[in-house]
Write a structure and sequence with these properties.
DNA polymerase, domain 1, 2 domains, 6-stranded parallel β-sheet
Amino acid sequence: MRMPDNFRGAIFDLDGTLLDSMQVWKQIDIEFLAKRGHSVPPGYSESLAGLSFQETAECVIGMFGLPEEPGEIMQEWNEMALEAYRHRVLLKPHAKEYLQRLKQDGVRLAACTALSRGLYEAALQNNGIYDYFDAFVSTDEVSRGKNFPDAYLLAAQRLGLPAQDCAVFEDVLPAVRGALAAGMQVYGVFDAASAKDQREIQDIACGYLYDFSFSK
């Protein structure tokens, strides 16, 4: 597809969209649950897609009957992930070049993520793109996850733009639906972890990207 160009603001998911990080979370899931005597059940990641960090912790507690509070689990996940986000999580192909082009064209950029501030700052700084962004939103700042429009509307507000002037880039189906509900232009981004939903994302999104070179 051709490079989309009819928006004033661009809102990017991080895990699985800008950041090639989903394998990190698969390993964390394995280690976290193994410590508690559980294995990762089929469909586990899909059942959590689009949820905020808080909602994910609450869901996992209910799913496995864990005794911890959500805050304790979130802290453990953050500690497990921090080294990877500081040093090993890299950008998706051509993502940096695309962000540079958007900045040169005067497009305002926001990151909208379920990651905590410590994790997204570490990854964006390590990859040299933190200063490209004009706004940041974590889903824990709103009452509902990315399967609802709340986080995207907050991102548009922080960019100082109406929703219809913003494009959203997302890799998972529930988040694509949430961004569409916000009245934004939505582009699906390929990630192996969400490949099973590729056809449905293509059916409802404005376009679908295999990488940020727009060459496929």
